Amino acid sequence: MPVAKVRILCSNTTLFVWKIINIEEKLTIQGLFEYIVDRYVPWLKEEILEKIEARCSKIKEQAEDEIKLGCLISDIVSNFGNLFTFQIKILLNKNNSQPVNTFDVLRSVTRELCLPTFSFSQNPKTNDKLKLDILSYISSHKSGWTYNIIPVEKKFIKELSDML
Fold first, then answer.
1. What Rg do the C-alpha atoms of the chain give, in angstroms?
2. Where are the domains of the chain?
């Protein structure tokens, strides 16, 4: 029976420290996450998860590969390693009585990527399509600006499209 070493993170907080777990042959990554939550982190079932991202590697220092939740663990372990990190994002509940950590809010805001939006006239200019293509390219490569500084973002896109 294969084993996996697993942890769960939420931002920079460790919710479940590294633990070695026996896994069944037909278990998926999603099934492993649900098993850990049911058995070790039951309070997490009460939270609404905005995102679950799974990553794996062969050694801790190695950059982790992102994996789909539907993959079979046995296939992943044999090809990519048995160290699994689940990175989750909990949806903030406005009715939650717990105080919000200001530093967590600041940290999450600085990590969100922003892209400018343009409004085009009925008679588009020759480089308007190019501006949209540049924005599409930046977005498709999961890039952007970490702060929403609209004048700087728009100026960059405009000058780039004018140069091309």
1. 21
2. 3-90, 112-164
Contact yes or no for 23/83 (Cβ under 8 A): no
Q: Nearest-CA neighbor of 2 among 93, 83, 82, 57?
A: 82
Phi-psi category of residue 122: left, alpha or beta, with phi > 0 → left and psi -120 to 50 → alpha: alpha
**Stated length of the chain:** 164
In angstroms, what CA-CA distances link 60 with 11, 64, 69?
A: 18, 8, 20
CA 124 to chain centre: 36
Which CATH number is associated with domain 3-90? 3.10.20.90
**Amino acid at position 149, single letter:** I
Nearest Cα neighbor of 6 from 17, 15, 14 is 17
Q: Rounded to two decimals, what is the model's pTM?
A: 0.55
Q: DSSP letters along 130-143, please?
A: HHHHHHHHHHHTT-
Helix (H) or strand (E) holding 18: strand 13-22
What digits encode the pLDDT tens for the residues 23-81?
888 889 999 999 999 999 888 888 888 889 999 988 877 767 889 999 888 888 888 88
To which H or E segment does residue 33 belong?
A: helix 29-40
The Cα–Cα gap between 49 and 58 comes to: 27
3-state secondary structure of 121: coil
